């Protein structure tokens, strides 16, 4: 996996409450004008401190990012590029609010002029060329990616989206129709996906809570026979674990892969190995992306 670059410091230029539980923060700065276009669902690592505190940026080194000695490390949170306007030099991030968390505290207190660091952007998703249909699914944290994909995917293949939110207040008007499922009414993504047909030629993109993503992935791969190449399932967060805890799982996944002599090439590879460690055994073997 290519390492993402650390951008020179950026600052907050605007904020907006998109829904009761979704806060948009728009970042600005000249470094954004120099970026290459990004694929839909690309992400960044957002670096921020507690409201009002300065942000220390890391320096790229041979074995990853290092922080200046003695400096307090900022929070680092993966967030999707909801929109990148290279002409204006702005990058919009939509942050799901879920109680008193570091990202939520920062996003709701952010003001124009606040400093922020960005590592990236990187990643993004394009369906396999032979996909005849695309199915996107996720919870609130996946809405920015699904929104970007709905805007960017070509019109010739049908694109369906299923999104799980707490209730109807967090629904958004997106570029194409979405089936909204509400937890408050007992709905889940897995139940919604079980209800619908998934052909072998369907490309599925799923992101959200780790246990839910794992269950959906197993359902699609084992019970619906979907090929690995057509099932892109990524854990965006895990119940009961902070982002730092999840990062540690990825580190452990890389170490375990090295111990077994497996090369993890894509984000999907790292996630599969991390699912296996997280659950004490995953019935779909980790291997080359051929099957
Ligand atoms: C590639 C990628 C892209 C992502 N894009 C986005 C994005 O665009 N917008 C976005 O909001 N998130 C996105 N996420 C998810 C986000 O990084 C995590 O939800 C992150 O943990 C949020 O940090 P926090 O400071 O709010 O909570 P943390 O400090 O990391 O966690 C504190 C507690 O909150 C729980 N928690 C974390 N997230 C949620 C949640 N959404 N709902 C309920 N409980 C939660 C944790 O399990 C933990 O118990 C993305 C993740 C990845 C890997």
TrEMBL record:
Domain FAD-binding FR-type: 5-128
Record-level Gene Ontology MF annotations: oxidoreductase activity
Coiled-coil regions listed: none
UniProt superkingdom: Bacteria
PANTHER family (UniProt xref): FERRIC REDUCTASE, NADPH-DEPENDENT (PTHR30157), NADPH-DEPENDENT FERRIC-CHELATE REDUCTASE (PTHR30157:SF0)
The protein's name in its UniProt record: FAD-binding FR-type domain-containing protein
UniProt source species: uncultured Actinomycetospora sp
């Amino acid at each position: 996996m290519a390492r993402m670059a650390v951008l020179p410091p950026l600052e907050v230029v605007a904020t907006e409450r998109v829904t009761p539980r979704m806060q948009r923060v728009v970042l600005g700065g000249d470094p954004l004008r120099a970026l290459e276009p990004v694929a839909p669902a690309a992400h960044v690592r957002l670096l921020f401190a507690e409201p009002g505190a300065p942000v220390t940026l890391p320096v790229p080194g041979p074995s990853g990012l290092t922080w200046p000695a003695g400096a307090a490390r900022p929070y680092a949170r993966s967030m999707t590029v909801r929109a990148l306007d290279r002409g204006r030099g702005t990058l919009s991030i939509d942050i799901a609010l879920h109680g008193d968390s570091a990202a939520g505290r920062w996003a709701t207190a952010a003001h124009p002029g606040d400093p922020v660091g960005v590592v990236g952007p990187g990643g993004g998703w394009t369906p396999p060329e032979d996909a005849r249909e695309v199915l996107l699914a996720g919870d609130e944290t996946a809405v920015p990616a699904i929104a970007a994909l709905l805007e960017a995917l070509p019109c010739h293949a049908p694109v369906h989206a299923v999104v799980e939110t707490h209730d109807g207040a967090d629904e958004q008007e997106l570029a194409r129709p979405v089936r909204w499922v509400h937890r408050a009414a007992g709905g889940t993504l897995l139940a919604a996906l079980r209800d619908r047909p998934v052909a072998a030629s369907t490309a599925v993109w799923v992101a959200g809570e780790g246990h839910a993503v794992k269950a959906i992935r197993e359902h699609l791969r084992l019970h619906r026979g979907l090929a690995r190449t057509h099932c892109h399932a990524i854990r965006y967060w895990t119940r009961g674990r902070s982002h730092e805890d999840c990062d540690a799982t990825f580190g452990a996944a890389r170490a375990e892969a090295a111990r077994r002599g497996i090369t993890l090439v894509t984000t999907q590879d790292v996630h599969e190995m991390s699912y296996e460690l997280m659950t004490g055994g995953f019935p779909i073997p980790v291997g080359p992306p051929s099957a």
